[in-house]
Specification:
Length: 270
């Protein structure tokens, strides 16, 4: 049985080629190809394709002789033809993120992100790669790329949410939904962009409105022109307060952690 691996990424210079080529060194009886734009560079390995059709033909032929086919391609990542899709995240402020980044993330079995762990990756490939030694080497490769992208120093993370009567009423999920309502003008499209059902999105909004005692969205039923939604003044104010508070907490957490971590270690222990 031949396994098809697809390597995709959040943008340029995140290490797709590096990961793909090193993966071929780890996986026994493997072959590599790249599907992209432009021309093949002389210093890079061969098997370069400008269109998906030629690349797919190469894959079909390679599967009959190779145990592992490793393809570097964003376009093929969500084609549902791969056995394993590896997504390499970018760095805020440094990477020019692709427009289809959410689609690539959703398609991936394995994600090299700040939050991903060696154990996550090992579990993801456990049913696909029989050799534990090979699985360990693959995960070590992914961890090396993660350290290259995001550094190896420990960092502190924080999350803000609002509660009432012991219930979670507003957090990152609803904030993202509100952002999409602002952009799309419809709750249905906003829910889809937030990867939640329309019913679930509607329930979250109603629960928040009950707790805050205010209408957070202005909704108009559909007619010939279709329905539309937008944030009310209270909803927009709530979203802005949440974003500002989240940013302040993140800065405070990062600053205090840096002070403690780089300061007197005896003070930290006590």
């Amino acid at each position: 049985m031949s396994l098809l691996w697809i390597i995709c990424g959040a943008g340029r210079n995140v290490g797709k080629t590096t990961v793909a080529l090193h993966l071929c060194e780890i996986l026994p009886d493997s072959v590599y190809a790249k599907c992209g734009h432009g021309k093949a560079k002389p210093e890079k390995p061969g098997n370069f394709f400008n269109n998906i059709e030629d690349c797919i033909s190469f894959i079909d032929a390679a599967k009959s002789s190779a145990a592992h086919v490793v393809i570097e391609s964003n376009a093929l990542a969500y084609s549902q033809t791969a056995d394993l899709v590896i997504f390499i995240d970018g760095i805020e402020g440094k990477t020019k993120f692709r427009e289809d980044i959410k689609k690539l993330r959703a398609a991936a079995n394995i994600k090299i992100t700040c939050d991903a762990t060696w154990i996550d990756w090992h579990k993801a490939i456990s049913n696909m790669v029989g050799s534990k030694a090979v699985r360990d080497d693959v995960c070590d490769l992914l961890y090396t790329q993660k350290r290259y992208l995001f550094g190896s120093q420990p960092t502190a993370r924080s999350k803000v949410w609002f509660e009432a009567a012991g219930s979670h009423i507003f957090g990152n999920g609803l904030a993202e939904l509100f952002e999409h309502i602002n952009r799309s003008g419809t709750l249905r499209q906003a829910a889809k962009a937030s990867n939640m059902s329309y019913r679930h999105a509607w329930d979250l909004i109603r629960m928040a409105e009950r707790h805050f005692g205010k209408e957070l969205t202005d909704r108009h039923a559909g007619g010939q022109s279709g329905g539309n939604s937008k944030l009310s003044a209270d909803g927009l104010h709530l979203l802005n307060v949440f974003k500002q508070l989240s940013k302040q907490v993140a800065v405070f957490t990062d600053t205090k952690f840096t002070e403690l971590y780089t300061g007197n270690k005896n003070d930290v222990c006590h």
